[in-house]
Amino acid sequence: MASDILDRLQENAERFSKGQKRLAAYIVECYDKAAFMTAGKLGKTVGVSESTVVRFAAELGYEGYPGMQKELQEVLRNRLTSVQRMEAVNDRLDGQEVVSMVFRADMETLRQTDAALDRESFGRAVQRILTARSVYLIGVRSSAALASFLNFYLRNMLDDVHLVEPTAVSEMFEQLLHVGPEDVAVGISFPRYSSRTVKTMQFCRNAGAGIVAITDSLQAPAARQADHVLLAKSDMVSIVDSLVAPLSVINALIVALGRAKGTDLSRIYNELERIWEEYEVYERVEN
Fold first, then answer.
1. Which tens digits make up the pLDDT trace of 237-276?
2. ∠ at Cα 117 (116, 122), nearest 5°?
3. CB-CB neighbours of 37 under 10 Å
4. Residues 148, 152, 157: CA angle, nearest 5 degrees
5. Residue 202: enclosing H or E segment and its boundaries?
6. DSSP 8-state symbol, 139
7. Which of 41, 165, 183, 190 is the most buried (most CB within 10 A)?
8. How many other C-beta atoms can be found within 10 angstroms of the C-beta atom of residue 136?
C-alpha cells in the first residue's frame, strides 16, 4: 500500500530544516488536530511562520497548504478510532451550528464528486452492468445501506441481481460460489475501509468477473481491485461518515441503467403497478 503523509514525514525527517522538523513532529504526533488547522494556526502552534508552513507543504509536493491539509483529513478518517473521531470533529465545530456545518460539508462533497467522477468510466460501468449475466452487490458496515438501496432498484430492472449479505467472509464467499467471467460485482467501500469488502471483490476478480468500485479515491483498496471506478467523496461527521455524495452517484447509476432499459423498464413497472394495486402494497392518500 502507498505510504500516507505521516509515513513520509517520518521517513524524511532527517533532511528537514529545524523549523520543518518541528512541523513534522507536531503533525505526526497531533495529526487529529493539525488536520483542521489553518496554516497560520499550525505555524503559531509550532512556533514557525505561516509562510514556513506553506513552503513546507510545497516541498512535500503539494500545490499548496490546502492539498496537504486534505490528505491529513483523509489520514484522519482512516486511522482514528470512533472516540478520536468524535473529539476531532468537536474541535472542528468550534462553535459552529451543527446542522449548517453538516449541510455545508455535504454540499462540498457533492461539488467535489461532480468534479471527480469520470463520465467515461461511469458510462463503461453502466454498459458492463447491463450486459452482465448476474450482478453481485457488495457492501458491509455503513456501506451495507448503500448496497441494499442499489439492490432495491436493480432487482426490478435486471434479470439476476444478488445482494451479498454482509456476514462472515467465508459465508460471503459461499454466496459467490457461481460467480464467473460473465458476471459483474459492484463493491461499495468508504473509510474506514472494510477488509471483508476488499477480500470479496478480490474473490470475484479472481473468478474472472468484471468489477465496479464505488469508493472515494483511486488509491482506495477497492479501487485497486476494480475495472471501473466511480469516485464519490465522503466527509467525516463525528462518528459517522456522510454518504450523501455516494448515494447521489448510486442514484445517477440507477437512472442511467433505467434510461438504457427504456421500454423494457416501462413494461416491468406497469406490471409492478398492477401487482401493488391488487395486493394493496401502498396506502391510498386522499387529497
1. 555 678 999 999 999 999 999 999 877 777 887 888 888 8
2. 165
3. 21
4. 135
5. helix 195-206
6. -
7. 190
8. 26
Burial category of 264 from C-beta neighbours within 10 Å (exposed 0-12, middle 13-18, buried 19 and up): exposed
Q: Which three cell numbers stand for residue 160?
A: 439476476
Residue 41 has pLDDT above 80, yes or no: yes
Tell me, what DSSP letter sits at residue 194?
A: P
Per the prediction, the chain carries an average pLDDT of: 87
Q: Which residues pair with 195 in a beta bridge?
A: none
CB-CB neighbours of 39 under 10 Å: 20
Q: Who has greater pLDDT, 252 or 14?
A: 252
Q: SS3 of 177, please?
A: coil
Q: Are 119 and 197 in contact (CB under 8 A)?
A: no
Q: Alpha-carbon distance 233 to 95, whole Å?
A: 25
What SS3 state is found at 272? helix
Residue 236: helix, strand or coil by DSSP? strand
Among 12-16, 98-102, 218-222, which is the least confidently predicted range?
A: 98-102
Asked if the model's pLDDT at residue 232 lies above 80, the reply is yes
Which residue bears the cell 451543527?
98
What is the predicted pLDDT for the residue at 3?
A: 60
Residue 1's Cβ-count burial label (10 Å; 0-12, 13-18, 19+) is exposed
What is the C-alpha to C-alpha distance for residues 256 and 22, in angstroms, rounded to an integer? 51
Label residue 1 by pLDDT band (50, 70, 90): very low
